[in-house]
Amino acid sequence: MKGCQMRGMVGLLVVVSLLAGCSLLRDSGAWQDPEARVLDSKLVGLTLEKAFLEVELEVKNPNLYAIRLGALDYQLDLLDAKVLSGQQQQGNRLAAGKTQRLVLPLELEFAELGQFVSNLSQMKSLDYAVAGGMSFDVPAAGPLRIPFQVRGEIPVPQLPRFSLIGIEQKRLSLSGADLLLSLEFDNPNMFDLLVNRLSYSLALNGQPVTRGALPRELSIGADGRSRIDVPVNIAFGRSTLALYESLQRGGNLNYQLDLDTQLGSSLPVFRSFPFATQQTGQVQLSR
Questions:
Q1: Closest residue by Cα to residue 34 from 75, 70, 9
Q2: Which among 11, 141, 195, 212 could bridge 22 via Cys, Cβ 3.0 to 4.6 Å?
């Protein structure tokens, strides 16, 4: 029992002496507390799977002698849930009167965030907070920690939706038909999407009808929709006689639409990626 009391007293004396050391140094004018402040917190990379953040800090030594940097500790919270924590050991000396910039890289995987955010797939963005501290080794006093905090927002990228919303029959004869396909593109994101080099193929009632590519880039506004009309010419032969009869009758047509494109965005940090999708269903033929 006496041993436990003795160890407790020793620990208390150490803490008191460290605090007294800092106080004496400040009172004597020989010591000024170092500074640590956040310069920026930004998104530096984004994919469908991950978000990459960087928190940039500036540390300053206002004293007339060098001090040693200790550990940079951090914790990242999303919606008040602790997601990441850790520390970076610095260990270098910061010269008298000098400042130094430090970069804290953070990486978030959206698949792992699902355990903290139940409706992540329906969200356009996430608010985050990064809190931490920069430790300094104070001469004759020991470690000193200067806290920092910063908040920001992370976009949650979602795949666009493509659909065939209508087919208009412009011309029909025994030799062929002219159709106008109406395609709709739905962008659920908080940033613009760019559809590059879109190629497509269409089958109606099980018969391949056409394939082609859009000659220009298509921009879909944030949380918006875009529609494009694609003219199609069909030449009938023996194998497509059943399709001619279906077009002559009108009504609903079974379709299969395959799209292949390269998706980009208005965000420079969002890397473009290949995207392919297939839509099947029924569409109304209008005249």
A1: 70
A2: 141
